[in-house]
Specification:
mainly alpha, Growth Hormone, Chain: A
Length: 427
């Protein structure tokens, strides 16, 4: 599906292209809808797969059961890295369409897989697809709105994605409770993929030239002093050298580390306490629902008060919520913890992306976003492995407690090391 971009490496922006949310509202809202479908494709697994591991495939060890999250995280993290480079080379739209095409076999593998290895393979494919589709919708919205509304744009993007996750998690929980763990829940995912592919092919337009327009008048904040950087330079800046970019990268990793824990072990913990599948589905949905809806506020708020306060505060709220899960024993406590965990994540998630966009030069911003998302989604793999090992040795509450401590420490690192990155503070 990808064809080489016939433009020169640094073409002049096309006439008539303008930056701004209002100026590009129709295309922006279309991309919001597309990302909701991307989230729904992921959400089809949130309630059902942990139960499938225990009840259908009889996986006793948590480490074994969490292999699908490990596989998903590694595949998505690696694909995120390449998504930025591919979208700069070939354009955003071909990468988005390719991601949807790659997702086509996922529901079939989940429905008909006769062994756990098939489920793991499905999550490798899903991780590749999510790395291409979600990364590209992030880049395209950054391209369209320019610097002044970047926080709002990321809030809307991530809100749509995680409301899609929440809606699918809730719906599949009820479907599984009434018609079984397979095939019903995954037919919903198949519908999401079909609609997402159709919209991306027929209605989404390329946005790469919007990034070129912004690059022509870009004012550096910290790391963006040079438009021409090699892939290696961008990687080291984003990962280690620039204090703001590297602080954001480690916070993203820890954020998804605790999300991997929530995805893989929370349903098992709730089931062991005697909760029914539909109540587990509610808890699995409330966390990403609050996360998703909250970003409608926190993304725009970060444009006004700055990125750093929301990131530090959000990580500390997440840590407190995880501690509540560890000590909780009933639905009410876990429901409150899910609300707090979603709130903390909403404070962090779009703000981290906006901070990357603030610092990185538009000429290599897509690569920097991809590298940040490499670290962030690598947190899924780290979380699955770490929490599985601790849960097997000491139980799920101990695993949750350790991840709570790591999340709090990550917030403190941001407080000490990160500089203000947003254009409001820098101006």
């Amino acid at each position: 599906m990808m064809t080489a971009n016939t433009n020169s490496p640094h073409p002049k922006p096309r006439a008539g292209i303008t930056l701004g949310l209002r100026q590009n509202l129709a295309q922006f809202m279309l991309l919001v809808a597309v990302n909701a479908l991307v989230g729904g494709t992921l959400g089809q697994e949130r309630t059902v797969l942990p139960l499938l591991a225990a009840q259908v495939f009889q996986l006793d060890l948590y480490t074994s059961a969490l292999t699908y999250i490990l596989a998903f995280g590694l595949a998505k993290a690696a694909t995120n890295y390449f998504a930025g480079t591919l979208s700069d080379r070939y354009g955003r739209k071909p990468v988005l369409v390719a991601g949807w095409i790659i997702a086509l076999p996922v529901p079939l593998l989940l429905i008909f897989g006769p062994s756990w290895g098939w489920i793991v393979a499905a999550n490798v494919v899903l991780g590749i697809s999510q790395g291409l589709t979600w990364s590209t919708t992030v880049m395209m919205k950054m391209d369209l709105v320019g610097p002044s509304r970047r926080g709002l744009a990321m809030g809307l993007n991530e809100a749509a994605g995680y409301l899609g996750v929440a809606g699918a998690a809730l719906a599949t929980g009820y479907i599984a409770a009434t018609s079984g763990l397979r095939p019903g829940p995954f037919l919903l995912g198949a519908a999401f993929i079909a609609v997402g592919l159709g919209l991306s092919v027929l209605t989404v337009r390329e946005t790469h030239h919007h990034a070129k327009l912004e690059a022509a008048s870009h004012v550096s904040v910290h790391a963006g002093t040079h438009a021409e950087l090699s892939n290696r330079d961008v990687f080291t800046l984003t990962s280690f050298r620039d204090k703001s970019l590297s602080s954001v990268s480690q916070a993203g990793l820890v954020n998804n580390l605790n999300d991997g824990l929530a995805w893989g072990l929370f349903p098992v913990l709730f089931a062991a306490a005697g909760l029914t599948i539909d109540r587990i589905g509610i808890l699995a949905a409330v966390y990403p629902a609050v996360w998703g809806a909250g970003q409608l506020v926190t993304g725009a708020l970060s444009d006004r008060i700055g990125r750093k306060p929301l990131i530090v505060g959000g990580m500390l709220v997440q840590a407190a919520a995880l501690a509540m899960v560890a000590v909780g024993r009933d639905f009410g406590t876990w429901l409150a913890a899910a609300v707090f965990l979603g709130t903390g994540t909403a404070m962090v998630y779009p703000t981290l992306l906006a901070a990357i966009g603030d610092v990185a030069h538009p000429a290599w911003r897509a690569r920097s976003v991809g590298i940040y998302r490499l670290w962030r989604d690598g947190g899924f793999a780290v979380g699955a492995l770490l929490s599985g090992i601790i849960a097997d040795a000491y139980g799920i509450p101990a695993a949750v407690g350790v991840v709570a401590a790591l999340t709090g420490a990550s917030g403190l690192i941001v407080a000490v090391r990160m500089r203000s990155t947003d254009h409001r503070a820098a101006g």
